[in-house]
Amino acid sequence: MADFSKISNITASSSSGPASRYSSLIWLLVLSALSIALWDVPWAKGILFPVRTFVTAVHEIGHAVACLATGGAVHGMTIVSDGNGHGGLTFCSGGMPFIYTQAGYLGTALFGCVLIFLGRYPKAAKAVLILMGAAISLASVFFVSQTFGDFSRLLQAVGSFIWAAAIGGGLIWSGLKLKPALANFVLLFLAVQTSLNALTDVVIVVKLSLGMYGFGVDTSSDAGSMAAMTFLPAAFWSLLWGAASVLMLAFTLWYCYGPKSKTKLI
Asked: What average pLDDT does the segment 173-185 reach?
């Protein structure tokens, strides 16, 4: 009589072998290549605007969470441009500015790394999307809504609230309705976009800090705020964040997919 238990064991073993182990890495590489190729294409920028707004929300939530964690208070938040070079703003008081000022860029890079890590587990993707959607929705209620009291930023507040609600609702819907494989694809796509935007945003801040955009350009940034606090030049902080972001991303990829990785999809 054939021993079917051995056959099933072999099948189970092969399904968690190299092919499945690196399937998420293959998708990460494909999505990264496509994102880079289409980075400056006008129509692609339009399509990816909601994703860019999602990354901005992650950046600003990083500031807000760090502010609250260090004993400060958040008085408002925006995630759309104010027309003066700021993709979004978070209004904080108290706490430790040295910590929460850096939490935007570094927090976004770290979040991208977390998404890459979670992308290895397709069965968890639906829950991750729901949690992200809930977090952005709560941020719109507790942080963005406070900006309505500032009439000079009323249009920003309205736009930010609408986008936060749309993105949060879209993520929750995706987590509830999509099949695990497609939900994991969405998660990996957001991981790539968050990581790439984190790196490109730091590059922009480096250029601003070094005066590479010329005169007449608003050079205020998180790096400029750090320079005012520490008397170290803005270029130092922007370059430091860039190096830290690259190291975090490299370590995450090595940890998840390196030769000694114990990755096993669930």
From this structure: 94
Question: What is the C-alpha to C-alpha distance for residues 102 and 181, in angstroms, rounded to an integer?
Answer: 35
89 φ, ψ (degrees, to nearest 5) = -140, 145
pLDDT at 211 over 90: no
- In sequence order, what are the residues at sequence separation of 6 or more whose Cβ sits closer than 8 angstroms to the Cβ of residue 186? 125, 129, 174, 178
Instruction: Report pLDDT for 262.
Output: 57
Closest C-alpha to 206, from 241, 231, 232, 248? 241
Contact 90, 143 (CB under 8 A): yes
d(CA 244, CA 25): 22
Cα(72)–Cα(69) distance, integer angstroms: 7
C-alpha span between 110 and 249 (Å, rounded): 8
Q: What are phi and psi of 232, to 5 degrees?
A: -90, 140
